[in-house]
Amino acid sequence: MAAVNVAIPALAQDLQASAVKVAWLPTVYILSNVAFLLPVGKLADMYGRKRMYVGGLILNCIAALFCTFSSNIDVILFWRFVQGIAAAMIFGTGVAIVSSIVPDQKRGMALGIVASCVYFGLTLAPALGGYLTELYGWRAVFFFQVPPIVLLIGFILLYLKGEWRHAVKGRYDVYGTFIFVAFTTSLVFGLSFITELQGFLMFVLSLLLLAAFIYHQSQQSHPLIRVQLFRENRLFSLSLLTSFFMYGSNFALLFLLSLYLQFILGYSPSHAGNILLLQALAMAIIAPFAGKLADRFNSRIVATLGCLGVALGLVVLNFLDMHSQAEQVGVGLVVVGIGFGLFSTPNNKAIMSSVSSDNVGIASAAMNLGRTLGNLVGMSLVNVMVIYFIGDAIISELVKNELMLTVSMALKMSLLMVCLACVGSSMRGKNVL
């Protein structure tokens, strides 16, 4: 899934897509991911987490095939939206399954292994995406998702026995789902066009819809999420807030640096991919050790150290200019990766351990919601910068100066978000699990 970021420049050139539509490729994916995380988490608790997980894999496989054979950027944007729904089904339930079968005293290590597997996938993605794009074109990056998914579905059906769901099924909140989807959609479009009157009005509408959603959930006997939990559980709410800022600072990073390395420094897709994999590689190596530290020590301290590490890496990246060397990008990404590896597992353990066993599905969905909502807001703000500095121009060497300005502003925004995350992480209290 993550390999697509490296293929975006080639896709944009082949389809002659404008900068605005190119920026929407990651945004529309994360939009549907955010919009469907809570509904998916609730449905998984009601009808089975493994069933939802396998359904997400099948849906992603179908969407990847349609992206492979599409020759229109608008069609690809639609299927990227579908892939976002599939990602919600996969990542909104995977951690819940692990948390359902692992005792609390070993949960940090287990979540560290999960995070490490994710990060190893992210490590391979840029290099793999770069080589596939160079050798076979951008379509190969989408098609390559299909064979591993087919094998994985077969493996799950053969070896992952049993099902995990809430003991009491309850009712599904349809109206709450509609309000939440409307909120996320209006938020994205509002932030993306906030410099215009229509965008500003949509942003205001999103805030009103958020208030309506919170009120509606507080009145329901079977809500998508117990909003009272945020007020009653400081550890849960501050851990989610920290996650929001951390992932908001990071999601657009690979997208921006992929454009920077290829269009400004002139590197090939494979060369750029080899540089971009450094962050995820560092995360993959550190995450299991961070899980062990989270089982033994105060997770607030470990996670806050991780936030500070990411901030240091972003300081390095904020010095990039038109003539920087690849080594500077690599060093910055490694430091960011070490910091994120220290942060993610302790923070996830704090979230999952702060709720009862009956609520691990919705806690998993809320954890992913905090992450993806941060991704969504961060990428939407980057969209604003792309629209303001580049507009409808096709991304090429003709707009190098404008692209460099966009990258510089986005990196400053990321650093500010991480600083806010440091504050949120340190405020969780001394008795953090």
From TrEMBL:
Its membrane topology: Multi-pass membrane protein
Name of the protein this chain belongs to: MFS transporter
Keyword set, alphabetical order: Membrane, Transmembrane, Transmembrane helix, Transport
PROSITE patterns: MFS (PS50850), SUGAR_TRANSPORT_1 (PS00216)
Localization (cell): Membrane
PANTHER family: MAJOR FACILITATOR SUPERFAMILY MULTIDRUG TRANSPORTER MFSC
TM stretches of this protein: 22-40, 52-71, 77-98, 110-132, 138-160, 172-191, 197-215, 235-263, 275-294, 301-320, 326-343, 373-391, 403-423
Major facilitator superfamily (MFS) profile domain ranges (all copies): 1-433
InterPro entries: MFS, MFS_dom, MFS_trans_sf, Sugar_transporter_CS
GO cellular component: membrane
